[in-house]
Structure formats: C-alpha cells, structure tokens
Design goal:
Blueprint (H helix, E strand, L loop, with lengths): L5 H15 L2 H14 L3 H26 L2 H5 L4 H14 L5 H14 L5 H5 L2 H18 L2 H29 L13 H4 L1 H10 L3 H18 L5 H34 L12 H13 L3 H31 L4 H16 L3 H27 L1 H4 L3 H24 L6 H6 L11 H21 L1
Family: Belongs to the branched chain amino acid transporter family.
Protein name: Branched-chain amino acid transport system II carrier protein
Subcellular location: Cell membrane
C-alpha cells in the first residue's frame, strides 16, 4: 500500500498555506498592528483564534466527516445544500475571489495610471480578464495546481515576506516604543482581534479546502482513509503554524510603522497602504515592485485554490463538469472584480456576520461528534439558535432593521456590543443537547 512521503506532505502543507494566505491575510495583520500599537501581542493572538486555530480545526472537521456536505447534513440535507452553496459563494465568486484579484491592481497598477485612466473602467476590466485567464489555466488540473503552488509559488511568497520582516528588524521604522492602541483595540483588544480574524474568511475556506486536500492525497495513490485523514490534519497544522508566524511578522511591521513619526501624512486606511509605504521606505522605487509581486502571488494562490475547491463541490451536486465550473467561476469573479475593492470589502461584512458564527459552531460540533454521536437535535438546536441570534444582530447593526421583540432580547445578551452575542447562547444550547443525550442513554 502506497505511503505518503514526507516530500508530498510538505508540498501539500505549503500549498494549503498558500491557498489560505490571500489578500485579506496580507493586509489585515499590519493594519491590526498599526491600530493596536502596544496591544499588538494580545490582539494578534486573539486574531489567530479565528484566523488560524479555527481554520485548522475546520480542516480536521472536514477530513473526519469526508467533506463539507457530509458535515452539514447532520442538521438536514436541505440545510447542508443551502449552507454549503451560501458559504462557497461568499468565499468564492461573490466576495473572496474578486477581492483577492482586485488587490494587486489597486496597489501595484492603479497608482501608475494617469488620472483619466484611473477614472476609467477599462484598465480594471482588462486586468481582471487577464488575471482570470491565468487563474483558469492554473485551475484546470487540481493535482498539478497543488504541485505548482507548493513547489514554486509558495516558497517565493514566503521568501518575499521574510525579506520584509528581516528588513523591519534590521532597519526598524520606529525610533521608540509602540504607540497606544486606537479605537476598539484600546478598550476591547481581544474581541476586536477575534472579529478582525473573520475578515480573512479562512475558517470558511477551510471547510472547502479540506476536501481538496483529501482528494489530492487520493489522486496521488493513497488508499488508506485513516492515513489520508491523519495527513490532511497534519497538513492543516503545518499551514496554521506558518500562518501564525507570518501574521506575527506582519503585525509587527504594522505596529512598527504606526510608531514611525512622520512616515504617514495621514492615518492609513488599510494594511495594504501600510505595507506599500513601508516597502517604499526600505527599498525606494523597487519597493512597489517587490510588494506588488508578493501581493500578486498571495492573491493568485488563493483564488486558484478557491476556484478548485468550489468546483470540486459543485460537480457533486450538479451534472456540470469540473472544467466547465472553473470557467463559470472565473467569468463571474472577473465581472465582480470590476465592482471595486472598497465596495467588495464593505458589502461582505454583513454576510460574514451571519455565516461565520454558523461555520465556527459547525466546526466545534463536528470535533465533539464522538460525544454527540451525530445527534440531530443537538446539531439543529445549536445551529439554528446561533443563526437566529447572529441574523437578528447583523440586521440591526448593519442595516438598522430591528425585528420587534427579538432585537431587544439579543441586546440583553453578553458581548452584543462586540458582535459576539451568539457565543454564550450557542454554548448553552450545546450543553442542553449533551445533557439530553446523557438522559436518553440512561433511559435505555
């Protein structure tokens, strides 16, 4: 029986990291560091809970249940279908893919265009067409994609990030200690860091990437299911470890830049601006080239991984072939990219406020499945309670739509002001479900 070689495991682990590490992963940690200042260590650890720990747990959950659909159908087949499609569209052509594709254009191409061209739709349109032709070409063969990302693109990306961090230590931007935290990081650094981790969308993506990694091990000839599950979880741990180290490096650069007097003419609007100015400070005119290349590689590896993962799922619920799905997603993503980066980021937030609590709850339930024994009551009780509470809270905060009675009850829940009001009710529902299971066993 064929064994999984260390080389194959390493390539898959690096590939999984590159699939996770996209536009949001690049820009949110330095922005966190810039805002958190002296609170950066505790804020980045909190950030890693939703941006590293839960993605790893998500990979494990999908590996053990053999796919997102099998995991979600423990509530019901209808829920599994609706949840899976909704989640994949969010991390796919409607939000994450066009956001990632748009980032290199905004930071490395648009600044060099004339004001007339910047106001025109044509440059972004042409760029998006070219970008998604490349994305489609790399997505055509999932096994080859794993090899390309793991052996070539990921090492280049890691080297570029390590260069940035090494220079930030050798030639630090700041001349004194980090500044005081700003905004919510000054009062609630932990919960703010946790919520910022939502923006990476990695816990959502892990529920899809896990299946890609499982299928990859099968395609290279591994037949033992236990070995495949074990190797997939270990690959997730390797990817998570690299992610955590990179996040800490990038947050340090952001905190360091925040303490650099006179570096910014005004407060930066996002982490991309921080990194662009920092690389320009260190490398001059070559900085934008280095930064643009690193950003392009980070975004391309993620969009390719997402395109493959989403297509792998949709061929299981439709009669449309894989090769056709990657064309469909590339075309839709290309069109969505033309909406613009700021608009994409803004309209994604409310949807994340609904889907993220569900995904995190589903991951926890899956990891406790040995005790829950796929009990439909417990799964449904927790998931639907979290859904209702997060939906009511999101409608109130994002759209100012107050559902009479329910919104008043939700506002009484702990952590409502931090957008985490669903957590404690979810835990309570879980304990109630587990108590019911124990009582049912005793009755037998």
């Amino acid at each position: 029986m064929k064994e999984i070689s260390f080389r194959s495991f390493l390539v898959v682990g690096l590939t999984l990291f590159s699939m996770f590490f996209g536009a949001g992963n690049f820009i949110f940690p330095p922005f966190l560091g810039n805002l958190a200042g002296e609170q950066t260590p505790i804020a980045i650890i909190a950030f890693c809970l939703t941006a590293v720990l839960f993605p790893i747990l998500g990979i494990a959950a999908v590996a053990k249940s053999n796919g997102l659909h099998n995991l979600a159908k423990r509530i019901s087949l209808k829920f599994a279908l609706i949840f899976s499609i909704f989640l994949l569209l969010i991390i796919g052509p409607f939000f994450a893919i066009p956001r990632a594709a748009n980032m290199p254009f905004e930071l490395a191409i648009k600044p060099f265009l004339s004001q007339g061209l910047q106001a025109s739709f044509m440059p972004l349109f042409l760029y998006s067409v070219v970008y998604f032709i490349v994305n489609w070409a790399l997505s055509r063969n999932p096994t080859k994609m794993i090899s390309t990302l793991g052996k070539i693109l990921t090492p280049i990306l890691l080297i570029l990030i390590l260069i940035l961090f090494a220079v930030s230590v050798i030639d630090p931007l700041h001349s004194s200690s980090f500044l005081q935290a700003k905004g919510n990081y000054a009062t609630h650094p932990i919960t703010t860091g946790i919520l910022e981790g939502y923006q990476t969308m990695d816990a959502l993506a892990s529920l899809s990437f896990g299946l890609v990694i499982l299928l990859t091990f099968k395609r290279i000839g591994i037949q033992d299911n236990e070995k495949i599950v074990s190797a997939t979880i270990k690959a997730g741990l390797l990817a998570g470890l690299i992610l955590m180290i990179i996040y800490m490096m990038l947050s340090y650069i952001g905190a360091s830049a925040g303490a650099a007097v006179g570096l910014f003419k005004q407060d930066p609007k996002n982490g991309a601006e921080i990194l662009a100015i920092a690389t320009g400070y260190w490398f001059g005119k070559y900085g934008i080239v280095i930064f643009g290349l690193a950003m392009f590689l980070a975004c391309l590896t993620t969009t390719v991984g997402l395109t493959c993962a989403i297509s792998e799922y949709f061929i299981t619920i439709t009669k449309i072939k894989y090769q056709h799905w990657i064309i469909i997603w590339s075309v839709i993503s290309s069109l969505m990219a033309n909406v613009g980066l700021t608009a994409i980021i803004n309209y994604a937030v409310p949807f994340l406020g609904i889907i993220y609590p569900l995904a995190l709850s589903l991951i926890v339930l899956s990891l406790l499945n040995n005790k829950l024994n796929e009990d439909k009551f417990t799964y449904s009780f927790v998931i639907y309670a979290v859904l209702v509470i997060s939906l009511v809270g999101t409608l109130d905060r994002s759209f100012h739509v107050a559902i009479p009675g329910l919104v008043d009850l939700c506002k009484l829940l702990p952590l409502y002001d931090q957008s985490l009001e669903w957590m404690i009710p979810g835990v309570v529902c879980l304990f109630i479900g587990m108590a019911k299971i124990k009582l049912s066993k005793k009755a037998i």
